[in-house]
């Protein structure tokens, strides 16, 4: 959907040009600026929020590196938060929260949930990751609205395509290592081109998870609209060696006055076989709330 009308949920999203991606600064010192408004008077292709899915947990830690030693192809994720109601000016102080599965399709907090197909047990990955916190985290946007995460390329689980979940919060503050208060302006999902994902899944440790992978065209959440639907711009660290990793980027345009419940569009998929319906396995870390009602 294009034009000057703000969609329900107050969210706009568009690709962040790779040319502005030069890795020359830290998260707090990044020099990238928000994209300028176009000649049509709009600065974004507009879209609504989508479902947070069945694996959300409150209380993620504020940190740049969320891997905790989980193995996989490195992914540097750079997201820019702008105000779609005010000429796409940066939103400093916005808290961007992401979470995703590991290379075999397991989420922290739900490590016994079968990802579908055939995969080793999550406990066989050999990492020392905390089963309640790995591959989850917040970053606070700098003066240019930029956040940066160090993570791994996600795996997949039936019946979903490869994706990363994202929420944008405003009005809260960092407290006890997490982000408290405020409100959620946007709940969305980030996606990966099929050709890159399928190449990654031939590598270790991803190749140990076999089965029917869901492509973008068949996913129940991705709407086929490219960057406006959450499709990341990806740049290989080394074009001839995908195992060296990727840099992914996207611009998220939000309405800082809007509030989103996380229900959104798209079913998001029910938890795979053996997934708990009310609570994650084990006990969440101290100070971490139970999963949201949508789990």
Low-confidence stretches: 1-42, 270-295
Radius of gyration: 18 Å
Beta fraction of the residues?
25-35%
| First and last CA, distance | 29 Å
Task: Enumerate how many helices there are, as a single number.
Answer: 1
Output mean pLDDT. Answer: 80
Q: What characterizes the major β-sheet?
A: 7 strands, mixed
**Helical content (DSSP H or I, runs of 4+):** under 10%
Count of beta strands: 11
Class of secondary structure makeup: mainly beta
How does the overall form come out from the CA principal axes?
A: globular
Encode the helix/strand succession as letters. EEEEEEEEEHEE
Give an overview in words.
By secondary structure, the protein is mostly beta strands. It is built from one helix and eleven strands, in the order βββββββββαββ. Strands 1, 2, 3, 4, 7, 10 and 11 form a seven-stranded mixed sheet that branches. A four-stranded antiparallel sheet has the order 6-5-8-9, with no helix packed on it. β3 and β4 form a beta hairpin. It is globular and about 45 Å long. The chain starts with 10 loop residues before the first strand and ends in a 41-residue tail after the last strand.
Keywords:
disordered C terminus; 7-stranded mixed beta sheet
Short overview:
The protein is mostly beta strands. It has one helix and eleven strands. Helix content is 2%, strand content 25%.
What's the topology here?
Blueprint: E1 11-14, E2 46-47, E3 74-83, E4 89-90, E5 95-99, E6 136-140, E7 146-152, E8 163-175, E9 178-191, H1 194-200, E10 233-236, E11 246-254
Parallel strand pairs: 3-11
Antiparallel strand pairs: 1-2, 1-11, 3-4, 3-7, 5-6, 5-8, 8-9, 10-11
